[in-house]
Every structure is written in C-alpha cells, then in structure tokens.
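Quick one: Reverse transcriptase Ty1/copia-type domain-containing protein from Taxus chinensis, structure tokens please.
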Amino acid sequence: KNMQEIKVLKKQLSESFDMKDLGAARQILGMRITRDRKEQKLTLSQEEYIKKVLDRFNMLDAKPVGTPLAGHFKLSKEQCPKT
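--- reply ---
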C-alpha cells in the first residue's frame, strides 16, 4: 500500500476511535519487533516473556541441555505436518 492509503485509513480510524500515531511498532503482545527494511525481514522476539516464565518457575539459573536434533539443522514449512 502506498502512504496516501495509509493516511486515509488512519484518518478514518481516528474518526471512530481515540488514537495517536506512535510511529513504527517496537513491541506488541510482549514481543519485541525488529525490522530490517534493507533485508526485508521482520523479527519477533519473545525473550522478555521467556525470562518472565523462567523467573516464575525459579529457573533463571537453568542450564541448557542437548536435544536429539543437532543445532545446525534448519526446519522448513515443507517439513510441517499437513493436518
């Protein structure tokens, strides 16, 4: 969408709702948002949520353990179950 369409939408929304433009989102639902326009990547991080959960269960000092799958394996959409 172009910027004019975005401006029109924001104007329409502001007529029905109290709102203000805070600029590009940096956080939503407890997830940190990182955007790299050059690489066309959007990253969501749940690091803070994970820390809260670990703290809640007194596991902030937990040590990592190995898993059956080596860390260098990359999972893809094609490997997901179809059902």
